[in-house]
Design brief:
The complex is a heterodimer. Chain A starts with a strand and ends with a strand. In chain A, the strands form two sheets. In chain A, strands 2, 4, 5, 9, 10 and 11 form a six-stranded mixed beta sheet that branches. In chain A, strands 1-3-8-7-6 form a five-stranded antiparallel beta sheet, with no helix packed on it. Chain A is built from no helices and eleven strands. By secondary structure, chain A is mainly beta. Chain B is mainly β. Chain B is built from no helices and eleven strands. In chain B, the strands form two sheets. In chain B, strands 2, 4, 5, 6, 9, 10 and 11 form a seven-stranded mixed beta sheet that branches. Chain B is globular and about 35 Å long. Classes of the chains: A mainly beta, B mainly beta.
């Protein structure tokens, strides 16, 4: 069963705008990770945030984590056409079975 | 480094046939896993392995077998293919539990 649930399911914005995607989950976690998947390709790791962290940056990406609300957000600033992809959050509950993925947000950047 | 290599990239099977999806990694990662991705369903865990000789079932293991005789290889076997196994299959590896995954490029399987 899915642990993380992304919102929105789809998002279309103009190039240069910021894109925000949210992820909610149900049980306690050790860390939460965000991945990108371009059409027809494998998933690529973007960022990992641990349960004792509240915010993390990587280039144009900013991830926040609120463990009290069991939610995370991914912000992509100054979006580019190349950012068009599906974005997945994945939670690591610390068990041997590893990551549980959400269904993803499909992001389209309009030129 | 090649990372995680999956073969084949595409495969069409007839119902009842069997086949093995190959997965190999050259990063000396202990942890490997297999997921299937279906439209609107995200990724679901089929089987995983925390090291050579150790495997366990994930969320959707029925109809699949795995083995882990070496650190590098983690093949997924479809025993009696069924149309419900039509999907895109991804292999992933990580250095250890609690770290990020590296994914292969996927195998697109169609069972007719």
């Amino acid at each position: 069963s899915q642990q993380g649930e992304e919102d929105p399911q789809a998002l279309s914005i103009q190039e240069g705008e910021n894109a925000t995607m949210n992820c909610s989950y149900k049980t306690s976690i050790n860390n939460l990770q965000w991945y990108r998947q371009n059409s027809g390709r494998g998933l690529v790791h973007l960022i990992l945030i641990r349960s004792n962290e509240r915010e993390k940056h990587s280039g144009r990406l900013r991830v926040t984590l609120d463990t009290s609300k069991k939610s995370s957000s991914l912000l992509i600033t100054a979006s580019r056409a190349a950012d068009t992809a599906s974005y997945f959050c994945a939670t690591d509950g610390g068990g041997a079975d590893g990551l549980t993925f959400g269904k993803g947000t499909h992001l389209i950047i309009q030129p | 480094n090649a990372g995680v290599t999956q073969t084949p990239k595409f495969q069409v099977l007839k119902t009842g046939q069997s086949m093995t999806l190959q997965c190999a990694q050259d990063m000396n990662h202990e942890y490997m896993s297999w997921y299937r991705q279906d439209p609107g369903m995200g990724l679901r865990l089929i089987h995983y392995s925390v090291g050579a000789g150790i495997t366990d079932q994930g969320e959707v293991p029925n109809g699949y077998n795995v083995s882990r005789s070496t650190t590098e290889d983690f093949p997924l076997r479809l025993l009696l293919a069924a149309p419900s196994q039509t999907s895109v299959y991804f292999c992933a590896s990580s250095y250890s539990q609690g770290t990020n995954y590296t994914f292969g490029s996927g195998t697109r399987l169609t069972v007719v």
